Amino acid sequence: LRRHELPVESTVVLLRPQADGPGLSGRYEQFGPSGRQTIVFQFQVIRIWERPVEEFLQGSLALLPLAPLARIEPAALTDVVAQMDARLTRDAPPETIPELWASTLILMGLRYHADVGRHVLRRVRQMRESTTYQAILEEGREEGVALGRRQGREEGREEGREEGREEGHEQGLESGRAQEARRLIMLFGAARLGQPNEAVHARLDTLTDADSLDRLAERLLTAASWQELMADAE
Predict the structure, then answer these.
(1) Which of 96, 127, 146, 157 to pair with 196, CA 20 to 30 A apart?
(2) Contact 169, 208 (CB under 8 A)
(3) 37 φ/ψ sector (left φ>0, alpha ψ -120 to 50, else beta)
(4) For 36, how many CA atoms within 13 A lie in the half-sphere containing its CB?
(5) What is the pLDDT of residues 206-222, one digit of tens each?
(6) CA 103, CA 114: separation in Å to the nearest integer?
(7) Would you state the torsion angle of the CA atoms of residues 53, 54, 60, 64, taken in this order, to the nearest 10 degrees?
(8) pLDDT score of 36 more than 80
(9) pLDDT, tens only, 78-128
């Protein structure tokens, strides 16, 4: 200001509601012993959680990691991260994408449990990147090959071997999806609803349909309790 003689505006950026308070009114005043005002300082306050998410999804790539902290409903988080993924894939230089995702994960920790952030990013940015999921799929592939060989030996036909291999592969894929969905539900649930009891564990273990578990995981973002969530379990 003194060196360049240019006007300056001060801005305070708040990333989460816990950082807010009465002192952040946009005006700071100081008074002397006589009661006279000696300092008055005005500043702008930007509360990220009050800003429309579109400002970050459509704005500068440098601000894109702030999108999950903007004004969104919890149920919209997965969709917001998916839109971020599409924007980065389309517009960001490949060498900057890992850094932007790392920034996103760190910032999400200000509002969401760390496990929630990691698993939402993993879920949206291709589940196949999960080493756990890859191991499950590989196990399914191996079971498929073994099943195909057994069936081929029993029936003496190459057709049986191929059918068995395909069937085992599909079963492995479905099992992998279901296991990943159950794990996601447990992580999200512990963050939002607290640790589940044994009854919840037992009920989840009986659910094997991956599509139903995916719908249950999405419902978790708005459920008020484990009881409410499990009432929707199919």
Answers:
(1) 127
(2) no
(3) beta
(4) 2
(5) 888 877 877 777 676 67
(6) 13
(7) 40
(8) yes
(9) 889 889 988 988 999 988 887 788 788 778 888 887 677 767 766 665 543
Do 57 and 63 contact (CB within 8 A), yes or no?
no
The string over 209-233, giving b where at least 16 C-beta atoms fall within 10 Å of a residue's C-beta and e elsewhere, is ebeebbebbebbbebeebeebbeeb
Structure-token pair, residue 122: 């993993």
HEC readout, the chain: CCCCCCCCCCEEEECCHHHCCCCCCCEEEEECCCCCEEEEEECEEEEHHHCECHHHHCCCHHHHHHHHHCECCHHHHHHHHHHHHHHHHHHCCHHHHHHHHHHHHHHHCCCCCHHHHHHHHHHHCCHHHCHHHHHHHHHHHHHHHHHHHHHHHHHCCHHHHHHHHHHHHHHHHHHHHHHHHHHHHHHHHHHHHCCCCHHHHHHHHHCCCHHHHHHHHHHCCCCCCHHHHHHCCC
The pLDDT tens digits for 130-181 are 444 444 445 445 554 555 555 555 554 455 445 554 555 455 555 666 776 7
pLDDT of 129 strictly over 70: no
Token digits of residue 87: 């924007």
What's the one-letter identity of residue 11? Answer: T
